Amino acid sequence: GIIHLRLAQAGTLLEKGSLSTAGGILEEIRADIDRVRQPGLALIWLELSGKRNLLLGEFGEALTCFRQILRLCYDNGFDRASLAAAINLAHALTYLNQTSAAVDLLRNARDRAYDLNETALAARASFLLQVVESRSHSMADGVPVDRSVTEMWGMAPDISTKPDRAELYSPLDLPQSDNYLAFFEDRALGFQWHLGRREFAACESLLSQTEEAFGGTDSALIHVRLRTLGGVLAYYRERFEEAEVALTGAAEALKYMGLKPELWQVQRFLGWCRVRLGRREADQQSLAEATRRLLEEMTESLAPDNRSTFLLNKWTADEEYIAGEINELARMKAAIEKTPWFLRLNRRMRLMKRLHRLSEHIDRYKDALAKKALDDGKDAQSERRPGLSWWKRLLSHPRDRATLSFLVLPDRVLVVRGGWMFLDFGVSPVTRIEVRDLVRRWHEPIRNSVNGSRGLGARPSEESNEAPDEVILNQGQQQTLVERVGDQKAIAHSLAGALQMPALLDSLPKHVRALTIVPDDSLHGFPFAAILYKGDFLIQRYSLSIAFESAARRTPMSSARKAALTVGVSRGTAEFPELRGTQEELKQIGSWLAQHDLSERRLDDINVEGRWPTKEDIIALLPQVSMFHIACHGEFKADRPDASGMVLITREGQADILSLRELSTMDFSGLKHATLSACWSADHFILPGRWVISLPETIWRAGAESILGCLWLVSDDVAVSLMQRFYYYLGEHQRDEALRRAQLDCLRGELVGCEHYDTANPIFWAGYNLYGSHERLRL
After folding, report:
1. pTM of the entire structure?
2. Which pLDDT score is estimated for 680?
3. DSSP bridge pairs for 710
4. Dihedrals φ, ψ of 629, to 5°?
């Protein structure tokens, strides 16, 4: 009886916001609850502890509690309780941006609730599904979305914000919870749902009703949340002084109560209020620093994987600056439309000049992140290289080429469209979470076919028992991928629509025949060649190259080097399978080099008369050559540039990594082209801080002109034949056109020795990307 009483006391204290006292009671009775003999009491204890952890921003502990509740329910056959537990866990996962997992849990809970005739829980799950969906499309953490590219370029976004059921639930229609705080939270969630849909009048009405219903409560927690909701609504209504007063008071109360997640959110809005009101710069900086520290404190309880996911829609200081610039550019663009025609040219030139400055800033921002990631995390300042003036950028851009640059922010994607004598931009209202989810879904068929691999680009995990040969696609797996290509086309179409690619391409001048794409975030892992445009794959209409900066400054260098380094690693280990096509590939490359009067320096592990490929020899020979071709495995580990790179096999059969960090310290300024003929050689990891780590970018930033790599695992037969075609075309065409023609040969089923493959499937050709210079290779 005493445990029941103490649990009830802890619950009451939580509702009032006395989290410290409630935590003391829960800790006091923790040892007295036997989970085997008293599973019901254990469930109550875990639920209260999980909710308290969530309120305090202790997300790792909260997830542990809610997962233990779910397991306890399953073990004891508590069907109804398991539904409530799944809904609570989904709510916690939503906090951490794990929306896909949350949606799966909620859909399952909703369907099971209907089966069990638990209509109240089914309604609550359905409503939370609406909230999660709205949240993923919402204005999110503090910065409102200005006009989208839809409005700017007159195209409709291909984004659906409808829930997966026709029936929409209003928060006022939900059955009343028997828990006072949960009853209030249903209304608060409804407010967020309407806010995400920009239904401000509905927000106002719901807030008024909620204040009337809960105005007499003695719960400090509910009172501070009501003040917060009022301040947020005032902000979006652009009543900034009113919002500042409400949010300042809410922040003080939240700080006293220790509610870090809500304090962080309030300080975000408060900071933007002060920016809009022109408050003192010192006050703005002080608040921004406090908000940053708060975010660090909240992430400390999370595992690394959860931490990076949680940070997906959290703004860095530089992103906030960029978002502010985007807002200003949008205002300038809107003003131009209302300007008399004789003043438009001058104002449009001012807009292009400011847009160019922002592009330059973004390039320096990415460069600084790259240096920091490869220098043990030390702060690094990007070198202030002399950039192009905005007018020189317009005049020097190739006439037949357009550059599409993407910047993925938490609540929007900036798209900059540049070419000869034009520079424009748009904003797509697709969130960072949505972009990553679409890219992930595109890769799922490939990832699922590689049993035991860790995501896109690694050998079997240490916990896996699979034999290494299982990571090579057999014919059955290839057939499975072929059957799924329809789904991939639909996903590619969705992502292209979300990024407004059809509108971008329709707006290009007719003489444009090539595209340079500057991706960001997870878009580095998306095969743009596989996008469908007017019934064709993009590669059927345009040559494609991938760049790491929006305005290329390098000019191809003349070099007296007439040598090439070729490396073949065909032997395997217990961890890495053999690469059987390596020798045939090097033989064909050797013939091409001889035809172009390039002496070949070969390192391989088959030819007994040759030199064994070692890290030391490769590092010594690379500065002496103008061409580099390596066929080997790749290894990538997040947060470990020193353990990520190209896999060499020693004579003793041990793996030795030529790492990203080692490559980043080398000078590749005389290297005209490098081909990384390895599965996953162009794979990217997006690390905390949003630095995208990859072999191509590392080698390019070290000075190489161009790099050819592949995003995923491809059959040896196809890889060897496609490489042969690429080098054949490379002697007569620009580099990106040479790759395009090789990919079209694959698409048309014209690769020699690949007749038994359905090479029209994008899986066989779309993963190959040319990075860096697209210009003709001059040896």
Report:
1. 0.66
2. 63
3. 768
4. -130, 125
